[in-house]
């Protein structure tokens, strides 16, 4: 009888699942290396060890998914609170105050700055209406989603006043009304990786939409 190759043995066992039922004693008689070294274990014990490791991996993945879900719930609750506050705001100053308060205190964003391209009549001169370069306005127009990353090359760090030299990462959110870009919100952090290139931006996009709608409402009411 010619010797069988390992692949042939493996194929045979796969195609004959009843083999170990017919030869049940072999499960306890065949010994294989322990998966973590050391003593040899029976085939049955090795199978149990493999199943335990798979269970641990599944439990770890489940715990990770639960943690992500809980974090998303917390962020959603914060976004909801901001939305309720913006809906209740009746003046431009109230919108700015609520935006700063919620982003700094609720979202723990240490530095928040807002720039709007045009100042409506009836609103006093404020930092939010300081001049913005044409290049930056064009950049905001092209943003399909919020920019997250370094402050280098944007000139937006100066928006953060005395903290400008300490800002290491930022998120830039374009504000739009009627299809056109009306301004931008900048979020700054001293941490290099607080805002990074590949991070998710869904909640930043929602915040931008809410702030845009609130500003459009309160500035229109001043005309």
What does this structure look like?
It is a single chain. Helix 4 (43-88) runs antiparallel to helix 5 and helix 4 (43-88) runs parallel beside helix 7. The N and C termini lie far apart (98 Å). It is elongated, with a radius of gyration of 30 Å. A 4-stranded antiparallel sheet has the order 3-6-5-4, with helices on both faces. The mean pLDDT is 85. It is built from 7 helices and 6 strands; from the N terminus they run αααββααβαβββα. With 223 residues, it is of the alpha+beta class.
What's the arrangement of secondary structure elements?
Elements: H1 6-15, H2 19-22, H3 26-29, E1 31-33, E2 40-42, H4 43-88, H5 92-106, E3 111-116, H6 134-142, E4 147-149, E5 169-177, E6 180-189, H7 202-220
Antiparallel strand pairs: 1-2, 3-6, 4-5, 5-6
Helix pairs in contact: 4-5, 4-7
Write a brief caption for the model.
The protein has seven helices and six strands; from the N terminus they run H-H-H-E-E-H-H-E-H-E-E-E-H. By secondary structure, it is an alpha+beta fold. Strand 1 and strand 2 form a beta hairpin.
């Amino acid at each position: 009888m010619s010797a069988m190759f390992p692949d042939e043995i493996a194929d045979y066992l796969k195609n004959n699942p009843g083999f170990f039922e017919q030869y049940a004693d072999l499960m306890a008689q065949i010994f294989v290396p322990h998966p973590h070294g050391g003593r040899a274990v029976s085939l049955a014990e090795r199978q149990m060890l493999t199943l335990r490791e798979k269970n641990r991996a599944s439990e770890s993945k489940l715990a990770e998914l639960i943690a992500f879900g809980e974090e998303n719930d917390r962020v959603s609750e914060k976004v909801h609170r901001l939305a309720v506050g913006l809906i209740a705001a009746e003046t431009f100053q109230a919108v700015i105050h609520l935006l700063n308060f919620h982003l700094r205190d609720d979202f723990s964003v240490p530095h928040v700055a807002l720039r709007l391209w045009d100042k409506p009549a009836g609103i006093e001169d404020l930092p939010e209406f300081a001049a913005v370069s044409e290049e930056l306005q064009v950049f905001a127009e092209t943003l399909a989603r919020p920019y997250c990353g370094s402050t280098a090359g944007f000139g937006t760090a100066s928006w953060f006043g005395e903290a400008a030299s300490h800002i290491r990462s930022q998120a830039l959110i374009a504000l739009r009304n009627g299809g056109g870009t009306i301004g931008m919100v900048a979020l700054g952090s001293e941490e290099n990786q607080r805002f990074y290139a590949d991070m998710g931006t869904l909640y930043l996009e929602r915040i931008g939409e809410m702030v845009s709608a609130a500003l459009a409402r309160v500035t229109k009411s001043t005309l």
